[in-house]
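Bumping with the actual sequence this time:
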Amino acid sequence: MKFFGKALGLVVATLALSSCGGGGGDGGSTTSPVSGKIEIVATTTTLPTNVGGYLPSQHGPNQAEITITSRNADGTLMVGKDVSISISPVNVAALSFLVQEGNENFDQLWGTFTIKATNGVATAWVNAMDIAGTATVTASTIDPTTQRTISNTLKFTVTSGVGQMPTQIALATNSNAVYLPSSGGRNSVQVSATVRDGGDQLVPDPNNADNIQYEIVGAPGGAILSTNSTSGPVSGLKVNSHTVHGLANVSFQAAENTPQGAIQVRATVDRADNNVSNGIQDGVTSTIGLVVSDGKLYSVKITSPNVDAIIENGVGGDVAGTNSAPDGTYSLIVSALGTDRQGNPVIPGTLIHFGSIDEPVGAFNSGVTANQFLLAGGDGNPQEGGTTFTAPTGHFTTAGGGAGPGDALVVWGKTQHGAPQGNEDLESAVSVQTVVSATNLTTASKFNRNDTTGTLVDYGPVLPYIIGRSQHGNITASASTNDLGVATAQLTYTVSTLGHRVAMWAQGDGFDRVTGGARRVTDAVQLVYPGIAPATLVAFPSPIPGNRTVPVTVCLMDANNSPIQGININFLMTLGGGTGQVDGNGMSGSLDNVTGPDGCVDAIVTSSGVPAAASGSVSGQVVFSVGGATAKVDIVVQVSFLSLAGQYRRCAAGNTPVVDLSIRAFATDGSAAGGVVIAATCSGATASPASVTTDASGVAEFTITGPADTTASCTFTTQGIAPLVTSVSIPPADAFSPPCQ
């Protein structure tokens, strides 16, 4: 709704029956001219709140019509004078008019409006809003005789139609997370209550009494509530307070011995008299849940935005394109969300360490190890609480050149990373200290005890792992969490390694509740160095000839035309006939090889028996795709010319001499063009059928019938080439032995 205070048009004057009204003027004096007066008459001055959402044009029950009459001192109507009408407060009621000029709609609501009365009379409507209260309408004009302002007012009462006793409480808090005092985090939060009556109106302020009671539900362990009552500040497990304009606040304060976990604060009001100071007769309650915790890191999760996640770096540390040219590197924004054991964000300022590795990785198109970490396996076995790591199938001394001191060992213990249930505590990123053998090494720091249940658990060699180092990128070493428990870092890498495999992790120090010491908290992920969206896929050459084997190059680039390597490209072949395959994998599937360092890969496209298409048309197509990017290569088989392949004279049924003609179609590459429709017309004879589709050898057969011993001219046509015209001699009947009869 809009409320404006300017005149935008005329209103239609309407006489109305009055049920109540008011009149006013300036009173005049015995020594000066007497001014006129304004009368305001309303159909009603009591309106219900607009709970039905009525528009002014609907003339709902929340609307009253008012008539404003301006009179001169002698009682005659004041003609030709503007009347200003206003209402306040507009959140209780607003004005509407029948606007005749401009584009204003009758459903527009106004706080102030100026109209030109017709013959001293103007009409408006008072529209109740959804808030109960009292609104005052004021009408004024300038007396033409005395040039004094004359005015009058009329009050309107907007009521919900129900009593003002409380019937509902809505509780809210500035934060559901509360921390123990020793944690260094916020150990108190504010809980706000909004109390309304049955008409959804804010309850009236109580008179020297408290009308809301707060209490802690359950065992608070020293936690208290604090608020202001009518008698002053109070605190305890149960406190009384009072609403101001329907609102009341209380503070929940955790103590050091408050049990960690969920705790509830309950608010109660008295539906009987809106007063809890004299006891609660008919209580209405509402509760809100808070979570008390120590704020210590228990879980960390790596995430990255889907939009605007990559920064193209520029020379000198600027963003490329802003103040400098690109420097050949990208930075991926990554974040780690830290949570304590009760689900609250960790205390702001909690330090999160980041790391990444990207070698040794198998060469692209090298089979099962292509773009995969070479020092890796699925049978890792970290020693719970110790520094030994073993893997029965490990090749720590040989794979990828072998591992060495200072390399990173990443162990996945979470089920979403492929580990069996019950090993989350073992997810780790640690440094290799000594490589003992191909299947055994030691680490520079201990693994967690895997005892989150209170008992150490060892599932044996069942965990995925990788060992490596970083050669193509780096990541922010550490960052501190914010109020949401989020620490943000940047993974920076060269554009020449887009698509190259990389692993990264976020790690912080948590608290081991069993030993009372530190506990490593880790989340590790694998990905490839990403390019900037949208990606572009191109394939060439296009078109390619059909019915032969042709190599096609497919290249994947990011939005900056940087090549993306190591990516599997999908394909789908469609043909108008015949058969085909790509890389020997049928007409759909994936290419045998992935994109190389230049972002490109070769595909071998083979087709056979594909019919020719009309000039300008294609005989088939191969669509290459990855993600949302596609590239199309057309397959073309077109007719180059028609040739008379042979003719045969014979006696047809009924001993009629006829000539059978064979017409052959050739493709542009000289091969037979099957599937070509050839039409035949003759002068002096008849061709049957009128059109024929060539077979796989490119041949169409026609029979020419006509008078014996005559010569006809026949024309054979197909799309896109010049027609073939040939003479056909139909022999006499006695040219055969025995002769045609």
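The tokens above came from a reply further down the thread. The chain has no helices and 52 strands.
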